[in-house]
């Protein structure tokens, strides 16, 4: 796949950067582009094109690629280049193992969510419902990703937020396999709303149980497609 459709967005990121000469910053820009769906599985990451739009050297790009490769978000193929990864079924299982440790715990054991945090979750639930009303798979998937990111953010931990960002970037790659499957995403719009209702009512332990079951069902649905 071509990187060209994503270059305009990346150029904006490069032009607005104040510390673009670091591999860490480049890795973050690329990770966000993957999470947002601008860079899709199989896309070749051209050093020349990326260097030009981000205004960074090839050494800086290679530093970023090394970091993303360690996160399994990109894959380096000898004599061919660096590509956005296609997660395997085994990797999906590992992602959900991590998520089952992070998300239910954030719901049950983090400090009680503030009114602002609940309002932000409610706004994401509304976005998911709007996407469902228009059969917009990308909108449903994007809202779902954001809901789970905000759930982990309830912990107030920058380290857990960073870990979740890595997991969500990988998850976005998995969800491309479900791009034509609105029926996969639709139930989770309702489940997000149910979890929010439990939080608003102070039933945090029940919210955690609901999330654990939710993740089990999502994993099973993805694996059924990947292994078919």
Give the arrangement of secondary structure elements.
Elements lengths: L3 H13 L6 H13 L11 H8 L3 H13 L3 E4 L3 E4 L4 H21 L5 H19 L3 H17 L4 H18 L6 H19 L3 H23 L2
Antiparallel strand pairs: 1-2
Helix pairs in contact: 1-3, 2-4, 2-8, 5-7, 5-8, 5-10, 6-7, 6-9, 7-8, 7-9, 9-10
Describe what you observe in this structure.
The structure is a single chain. The chain contains ten helices and two strands. The relative contact order is 0.12. With 228 residues, the chain is mostly helical. A two-stranded antiparallel ribbon has the order 1-2. Helix 6 (115-133) runs antiparallel to helix 7 (137-153). Helix content is 72%, strand content 4%. A hairpin with a 3-residue loop joins strand 1 (74-77) and strand 2. The protein folds into two domains: 4-84, Winged helix-like DNA-binding domain superfamily/Winged helix DNA-binding domain (Arc Repressor Mutant, subunit A); 89-226, GntR ligand-binding domain-like (Four Helix Bundle (Hemerythrin (Met), subunit A)), CATH 1.20.120.530. The protein starts with a helix and ends with a helix.
Short description:
This protein has 228 residues and is mainly α.
Let me know the CATH homologous superfamily of the largest domain.
Answer: GntR ligand-binding domain-like
Strand content: under 5%
The gyration radius over C-alpha positions equals 18 Å
**Total strands:** 2
Please mark out the parts with pLDDT under 50 across 5 or more consecutive residues, or reply none. Answer: none
Mean pLDDT: 88
How many structural domains are formed by the residues?
2
The order of strands across the largest sheet is: 1-2
């Amino acid at each position: 796949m071509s990187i060209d459709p994503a270059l305009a967005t990346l150029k904006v990121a490069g032009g607005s950067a104040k510390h673009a000469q670091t591999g860490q910053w480049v890795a973050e820009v690329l990770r966000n582009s993957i999470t947002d769906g601008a860079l899709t599985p199989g896309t070749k990451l051209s050093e020349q094109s990326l260097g030009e739009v981000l205004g960074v050297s090839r050494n800086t790009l290679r530093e970023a690629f090394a970091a993303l490769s360690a996160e399994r978000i990109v894959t380096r193929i000898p004599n061919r280049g660096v590509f956005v990864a296609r997660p395997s079924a085994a990797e999906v299982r590992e992602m959900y193992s991590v998520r089952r440790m992070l998300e239910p715990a954030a719901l049950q054991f983090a400090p009680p969510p503030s009114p602002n945090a609940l309002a932000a979750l409610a706004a994401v639930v509304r976005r998911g419902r709007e996407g469902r009303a228009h059969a917009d798979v990308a909108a449903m998937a994007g809202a779902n990703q954001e809901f789970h990111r905000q759930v982990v953010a309830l912990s107030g931990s920058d380290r857990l937020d960073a870990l979740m960002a890595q997991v969500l970037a990988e998850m976005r790659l998995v969800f491309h396999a479900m791009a034509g499957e609105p029926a996969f995403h639709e139930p989770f719009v309702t489940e997000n709303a149910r979890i929010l209702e439990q939080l608003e009512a102070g039933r945090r332990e029940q919210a955690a149980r609901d999330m654990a079951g939710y993740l089990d069902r999502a994993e099973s649905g993805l694996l059924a497609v990947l292994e078919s």
